[in-house]
């Protein structure tokens, strides 16, 4: 049946039929990608986060659909569809998603390991966290590339140095990850090429100062303009695209 969606009744009928189609494709045909769409439908149209969470979880556990692992992990991180957040479950499902080659899951798993938080029953492991960020960056996650670039720009101090810095200058062996402007440039370039405006801004500064790369004023200006153009695009294109999956 064709719809022109000009009347409220036709819109409602279309939405109801869409839900029926997704349920059939998920439960009868057992298609993981349709199960994920069903969960997105429950989340965005029905606003039933509890049911959406159950579908995401089942699609991750039963059908090994990485994007659903990511969504269920995010639900637990935010406490969506439940009474409270559970960082341990969130971490476990980010790990499942990462193992299923979902770059966004690798990013979030890595950030949980890098971040020191006494409320999380998870031991901080910066080196393992950076490995996961590198996997996410290699999987074309622009944010992961940006975070890696930033960590190499400033370096990552060891936990005991952060908590007891003293007054003396921090030595090289007191860094968990040493400053490395060459690597910082490489990851910033990758992040910029993937559309991260902050990576482009960092590239501009690096070219302007000659940090990690030969100084080049023209390229500094080029990447500065790229960052500004991306910023304008972000401000003018804040839209939600259903069926691509809601971003949490």
UniProtKB/TrEMBL annotation:
<comment type="similarity">
    <text>Belongs to the hcp beta-lactamase family.</text>
</comment>
<dbReference type="InterPro" id="IPR040239">
    <property type="entry name" value="HcpB-like"/>
</dbReference>
<dbReference type="InterPro" id="IPR011990">
    <property type="entry name" value="TPR-like_helical_dom_sf"/>
</dbReference>
<dbReference type="InterPro" id="IPR006597">
    <property type="entry name" value="Sel1-like"/>
</dbReference>
<keyword id="KW-0677">Repeat</keyword>
<protein>
    <recommendedName>
        <fullName>Cytochrome c oxidase assembly factor 7 homolog</fullName>
    </recommendedName>
</protein>
<dbReference type="Pfam" id="PF08238">
    <property type="entry name" value="Sel1"/>
</dbReference>
<dbReference type="GO" id="GO:0005758">
    <property type="term" value="C:mitochondrial intermembrane space"/>
</dbReference>
């Amino acid at each position: 049946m064709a719809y022109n969606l000009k009347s409220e009744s036709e819109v409602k009928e279309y939405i109801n039929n869409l839900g029926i189609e997704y349920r059939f494709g998920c439960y009868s045909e057992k298609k993981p990608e349709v199960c994920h769409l069903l969960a997105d439908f429950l989340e965005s149209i029905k606003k039933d986060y509890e049911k959406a969470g159950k579908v995401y979880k089942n699609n991750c556990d039963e059908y090994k659909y990485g994007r659903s692992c990511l969504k269920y992990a995010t639900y637990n991180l935010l406490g969506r569809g439940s009474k409270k957040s559970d960082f341990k479950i969130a971490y476990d499902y980010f790990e499942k998603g990462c193992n299923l080659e979902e770059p966004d899951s690798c990013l979030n798993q890595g950030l949980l390991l890098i971040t020191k938080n006494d409320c999380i029953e998870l031991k901080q492991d910066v080196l393992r966290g950076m490995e996961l960020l590198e996997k996410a960056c290699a999987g074309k996650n622009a944010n992961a590339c940006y975070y890696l670039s930033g960590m190499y720009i400033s370096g990552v101090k060891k936990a005991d140095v952060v908590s007891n810095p003293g007054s003396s200058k921090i030595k090289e062996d007191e860094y968990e990850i040493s400053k490395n402007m060459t690597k910082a440039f490489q990851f910033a370039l990758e992040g910029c090429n993937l559309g991260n405006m902050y990576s482009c801004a960092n590239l501009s500064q690096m070219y302007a100062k000659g940090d990690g790369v030969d100084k080049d004023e023209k390229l500094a200006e080029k990447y500065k303009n790229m960052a500004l153009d991306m910023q304008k695009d972000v401000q003018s294109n804040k839209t939600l695209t259903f069926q691509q999956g809601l971003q949490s």
